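Final report, closing paragraph on structural work. Over the funding period we assembled a curated collection of sequence-structure pairs, and we close with a single example.
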Amino acid sequence: MTPDGILTAGGVERPVDCIILGTGFVVDPRIYMRDFPVTGLPGHVLAEDWKAGAEAYYGVSVSGYPNLFQLVGPNTGLGHNSLVFMIEAQAHYILQCLRELEARRADWLDVDADEQARFNARVQNALAGTVWNSGCRSWYQQDDGRNVAIWPWSTWRFWLETRRVRTERYHFGNAG
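Its predicted structure, as stored:
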């Protein structure tokens, strides 16, 4: 990858606006991102930041990685409803983030680290005692038992919580 696109094996640089990584049915981001290095702000390497477990804010934003948006990121998978609904809610949320950047004439946004930590603590707390974390081992969990895949509440709640970007939970800035 280059700052403006991708460089082919033949040495041709092709400009791109977006790179999509399709992972199939592997749900632990540490596994499917293993060969896709991502660096963020100084001191942030996604493989290192996620060493103890992948986490994100609504499965979309990861603190320390401005303008990195995900669909079906950590803890947004379902075992009880339509994943398409979650993807639609996340796509709407990402579009709102982009509109907010444009309205503020900002180049980047980055979710606040403390907000991300609080959010993920709520998610893990909600998963405790559920069938998804009942003590049985499943593909929803990391080796240590931490669930990195499942959204613990209803899809309706996800939609309610992501229908509007809470800008106070993000930092905005400009390059240079």
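The longest strand covers residues 108-111. The chain is about 30% helix and 10% strand. We thank the funder for supporting this effort.
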